[in-house]
């Protein structure tokens, strides 16, 4: 039975570790208020220098003025 | 990191919620005692576009629920009794499985249409054969020389019913010679993985395929054979198989026990 | 590089902080990217050779006149697989994860030496592993062909990355943990468990018989679903909103999608074994889980689409967005396809055919690799403080790779279906094994041609990356590309 021991150990161990960590993750998130202000959460990747509304990636050589909004008849 | 969001159900919105936060690093749940200001910001919040917190659309909820429901049905149909030895999802262990099963279903087992029962059995047996047997004995029934004996023109296959059923239900191992070639392998037992109808079908199929011509085997005979071989649960050796009686198994009636040798 | 240019006062501190974070990531991340791109080229080379061998069997059977068993398909194919999975995908994934973790923790990189040491160790293991397979010491277990001593080295290297990640996370700036960080931490946490368990049960204390199949495919599928997918999704959830400047459409849905993925994904492995000598309930459970995966995938697709809505014109202007959106669309497509392949009757047709290979490439290449390309295009300028040199090279890269993977997917899918039909009908008039090979040959040739397209794209990408590394990128500041902090130099583009 000893060769199966490692098998059972891994199964039970995995269930405990993975299941436990998942439950702890949810518990911690709720406790810490991670799911309270979703709007703020979505905006946390922005900042003063790269605020909401600012495009942060362009082809080399392009400038933000070059972006033509769809439907706008703007000439470059 | 500690904040008071768990002390009350609704976090008190700070009046600064909708302005760009100069200090993005901290969650700002500062309370404001000024009730008017609080109400002001609540009222204001309702008018803002609420990105980040769109409610789950109803249709999405419906999709999710219907998926859970559908998957539950699938699970119920094909769970194979949660058994460790049921490899075919439609199997019930070691007993007559007279129903047509879940036919025409997702598992590819064709719903055998009404018609000549013999042809039905051969069709089912053919499918059974390609699922379970062909990987070793080959679709051509020729086996692999030295490894898996051929079924074409095999004495066991076209011989007495007991001989074939003993091998199928309980397995076969040890040295044997078939058509001039020596083998020393182990054929697994299929009695636990196939019900009577399936054993009968595949036996019938192989007994008339590849130039073989021997009579069909019925599920009743299989059931009787199971009872006979119940006292010999281990795999047979070829000598034991050949020592089995050569008389036909009565279809449907249980043979007197005790004929199997160890 | 000093960030002392004249800045808009408001954004000063944020820009400085961001620049400091990027600066701290420079060496480790560029190291990982360089190594990954090297492995990408190697993997592409071996993939091309293996692909050609499938329709020109005599190709490269001798090496300068000497018969070379080392170059047989049976060795080259696992080498290709392991290089693209562990050499390219894992390494670029870790590189992107390092930068994302730093950005999301809003703290400069800590213990860069640790993660660099991990990278070096990882590559030592990779090289040892590749040579082992080449010389015939490989396992026959898919995704785990490296011999046991190599997996031990890789596990050790990986453990260092995990330690680094935990340390970074513990020292983050307190506040909201963005969804990308959830995905990254989950991936970094789950992978050692996967790799360790699989190797214990297959190499160290091998389980018996068909149970090995279960462990193999539990591992193989989870490498895709619990390691590559979260890194890809983390990148998509970060780069799409960041590039277009709009937050994720429904942050709530993204959290839901994360937990649904965590719940359902790990059961899927058995769907590689449908029809095998395994308990029916295991197969059925894996099929059920595969269908249920539909839910997080749908949720993610909705999120990405609604975030992009009204902003699709940005695809013209942003290289990162092109790659990432292409990848995200492929994610949806490949996942829905995968769920369909878990249905027994469909699986009956497609199993053991080229269809499965097409699916695998759509997932690992169409989804993961394309998103990683997008990530590299975003990250590298911020590390080298210069823009990419040539928009044309980026466009060539994108279109060759996009057309290449689409062509490969279509060719292999159709070829696989043809093959499956013929395999199911072995007694049919012209369905002997040689007939099947003949029938699928045109599709295999199409696959090789699509591989050529991919090779071109990769070579252009690698060359472009090298140019950036040696400092030949553009010095003019594209105004929105970099933080204003680096806008101290104006100059003519080279």
Characterise the protein shown here.
The complex is a heterotrimer of chains A (76), B (262) and C (494). Chain A is mainly α. Chain A has a domain at 1-34. Chain A is built from 2 helices and no strands. Chain B has 262 residues and is mainly alpha-helical. Helices cover 37% and strands 5% of the residues of chain B. Chain B has helices at residues 35-47, 58-78, 117-132, 134-137, 155-158, 161-170, 196-208, 219-229, 238-243, and strands spanning 172-178, 181-187. Chain B has a two-stranded antiparallel sheet. In chain B, helix 3 crosses helix 7 and helix 7 (196-208) crosses helix 8. With 494 residues, chain C is an all-alpha fold. Chain C has a domain at 14-222 and 349-471: Cytochrome C Oxidase, Chain A, CATH 1.20.210. In chain C, 72% of the residues lie in helices and 1% in strands. A two-stranded antiparallel sheet of chain C has the order 1-2. In chain C, helix 4 (148-170) packs antiparallel against helix 5 (179-204) and helix 10 runs parallel beside helix 13 (391-423). The two termini of chain C are 20 Å apart. Chains A and B meet through helix 2 of A and loops of B.
């Amino acid at each position: 039975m000893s060769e199966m021991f490692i098998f059972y150990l891994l199964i039970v161990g995995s269930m405990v570790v993975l299941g436990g960590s998942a439950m702890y993750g949810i518990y911690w998130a709720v406790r810490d208020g991670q799911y309270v202000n979703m709007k703020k959460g979505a905006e946390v990747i922005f900042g003063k220098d790269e605020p909401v509304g600012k495009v942060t990636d362009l082809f080399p050589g392009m400038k933000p003025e070059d972006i033509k909004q769809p439907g706008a008849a703007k000439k470059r | 990191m500690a904040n008071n969001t768990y002390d009350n159900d609704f976090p008190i919105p700070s009046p600064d919620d909708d302005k760009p936060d100069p200090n993005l690093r901290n969650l700002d749940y500062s309370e404001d005692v000024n009730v008017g200001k609080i109400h002001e910001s609540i009222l204001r919040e309702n008018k803002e576009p609420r990105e980040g917190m769109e409610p789950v659309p109803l249709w999405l909820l419906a999709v999710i629920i219907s998926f859970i429901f559908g998957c539950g049905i699938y699970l119920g149909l094909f769970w194979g009794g949660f058994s460790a030895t049921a490899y075919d999802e439609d199997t019930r262990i070691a007993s007559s499985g007279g129903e047509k099963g879940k036919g025409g279903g997702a598992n590819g087992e064709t719903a055998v249409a009404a018609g000549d029962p013999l042809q039905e059995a051969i069709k089912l047996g053919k499918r059974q054969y390609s699922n379970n047997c062909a990987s070793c004995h080959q679709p051509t029934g020729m086996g692999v020389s030295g490894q898996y004996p051929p079924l074409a023109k095999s004495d066991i296959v076209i011989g007495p019913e007991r001989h074939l059923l003993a091998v199928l239900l309980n397995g076969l191992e040890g040295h044997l010679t078939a058509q001039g070639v020596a083998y020393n392998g182990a054929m697994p037992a299929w009695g636990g993985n196939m019900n009577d109808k399936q054993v009968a079908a595949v036996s019938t199929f192989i007994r008339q395929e590849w130039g073989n011509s021997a009579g069909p085997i019925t599920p009743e005979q299989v059931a009787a054979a199971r009872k006979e071989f119940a006292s010999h649960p281990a795999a047979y050796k070829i000598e034991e198989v050949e020592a089995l009686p050569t008389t036909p198994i009565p279809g449907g009636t249980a043979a007197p026990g005790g004929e199997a040798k160890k | 590089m000093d960030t002392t240019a004249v800045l808009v006062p408001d954004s000063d501190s944020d820009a400085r902080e961001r620049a400091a974070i990027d600066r701290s990531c420079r060496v480790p991340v560029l190291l990982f990217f360089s190594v990954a791109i090297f492995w990408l080229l190697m993997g592409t080379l071996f993939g091309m050779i293996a692909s050609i061998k499938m329709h020109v069997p005599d190709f490269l059977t001798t090496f300068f006149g000497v018969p070379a068993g080392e170059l047989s398909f049976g060795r080259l194919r696992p080498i290709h697989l392991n290089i693209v999975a562990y050499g390219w995908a894992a390494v670029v994934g870790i590189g992107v994860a390092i930068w994302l973790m730093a950005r999301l923790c809003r703290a400069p990189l800590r213990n860069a030496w640790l993660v660099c040491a991990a990278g070096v160790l990882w590559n030592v293991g990779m090289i040892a592993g590749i040579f082992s397979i080449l010389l015939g010491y490989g396992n026959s277990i898919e995704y785990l062909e490296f011999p046991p001593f190599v997996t031990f080295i890789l596990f050790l290297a990986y453990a260092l990355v995990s330690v680094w990640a935990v340390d970074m996370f513990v020292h983050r700036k307190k506040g909201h943990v963005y969804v990308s960080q959830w995905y990254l931490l989950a991936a970094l946490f789950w992978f050692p468990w996967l790799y360790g368990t699989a190797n214990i049960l297959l190499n160290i204390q091998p389980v018996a018989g068909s149970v090995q199949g279960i462990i193999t495919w539990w591992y193989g599928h989870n490498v895709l679903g619990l390691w590559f997918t979260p890194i890809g999704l983390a990148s998509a959830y970060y780069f799409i909103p960041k590039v277009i400047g709009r937050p994720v459409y429904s942050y709530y849905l993204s959290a839901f999608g994360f937990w649904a993925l965590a719940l359902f994904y790990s059961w899927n492995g058995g769907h590689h074994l449908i029809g095998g000598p395994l308990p029916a309930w295991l197969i059925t459970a894996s099929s059920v889980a595969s269908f249920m995966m539909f839910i997080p995938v749908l949720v993610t697709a909705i999120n990405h689409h609604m975030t992009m809505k009204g902003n699709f014109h940005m695809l013209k202007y942003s290289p990162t967005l092109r790659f990432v959106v292409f990848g995200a669309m492929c994610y949806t497509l490949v996942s829905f396809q995968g769920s369909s392949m878990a249905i027994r009757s469909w699986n009956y047709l497609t199993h053991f055919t080229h269809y499965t290979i097409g699916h695998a490439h759509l997932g690992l290449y169409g989804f993961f690799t394309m998103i990683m390309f997008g990530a590299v295009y975003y990250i590298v300028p911020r590390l080298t403080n210069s823009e990419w040199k040539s928009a044309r090279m980026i466009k060539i890269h994108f279109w060759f790779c996009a057309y290449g993977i689409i062509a490969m997917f279509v060719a292999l899918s159709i070829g696989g279906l043809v093959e499956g039909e013929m395999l199911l009908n072995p007694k049919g008039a012209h369905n002997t094994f040689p007939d099947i090979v003949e029938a699928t040959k045109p599709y295999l040739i199409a696959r090789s041609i699509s591989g050529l397209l991919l090779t071109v794209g990769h070579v252009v990408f690698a060359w472009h990356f090298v140019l950036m590394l040696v400092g030949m990128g553009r010095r003019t500041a594209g105004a929105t590309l970099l933080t204003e902090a680096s806008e101290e130099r104006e100059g003519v583009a080279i």
